[in-house]
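Hey Z.,

So I finally got round to the biotin thing we talked about over coffee. Here's the setup:
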Amino acid sequence: MVEPGKEQLLARLDIFDSIDSTNTYLLAQGKLGAVSGTVCLAEQQTQGRGRLGRVWYSPCGANIYCSLLWRFSSVSHDISGLSIAVATIVANTLRQYGILAGIQLKWPNDVLFAHRKLAGILLERSDQSGVVIGIGLNIDVSSAGEKSWIDLSEIMGRVVSRNYLVGLLINELLEKLPIYEKQGLPPFISEWQKYDVLFDKPISVHTPQEVILGTMRGITEKGELLLLNEKGFLQPFCYGEVSVRS
Ligand code: BTN
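And the result:
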């Protein structure tokens, strides 16, 4: 049953057999005036994109490639915490699908299982009020032979219904994004803490300027990573790559 209010939120659903990138497509649609709640799914991406200019492995019919255009009602709405909120939305979707333990979130928005990458999130601003939220969820990446990745088929040991799962994901996004829009990140922080794989770990934060060592002490209300540095000060980071030190 569709809950009251939710039925207006999925504005449009565009599904492709093959596309360069669902994010690239929605960025272009956003410029043409596509409305908030437009979703794009594809069976295959020929130029799937990850964070930091990386390629996102996107073979045909094997995984979920999903993008959603969201328009905030105020121009230049602060989206600094949005990637954290979306990561918790993905984690909760996986929980609803039956993965009750083992999901890990790594700041800023990697979704892991057993320290291997299960899903990735790419946020891109389409214009002043719009953001494209791209989610790649591994269902079967066995053909890649990449040990640092994991997929739902391996985790669950059975056939995964991509249609059902992507339905859950879209529902969860459409239900939770209005909460983020009204209240910001605070309602998502306790969820994040349930999955935070870095908390209290010795880490290195790599920024373009330097590498800073310390202990991860959680996230701020804006979604910044809090590092207890070696001088004993709490230092917030809004960007940077994090690795765990052994
Ligand atoms: C990451 O590097 O972790 C982010 C990966 C995001 C991949 C998804 S797949 C759907 C959407 N379209 C893209 O080209 N990228 C995102």
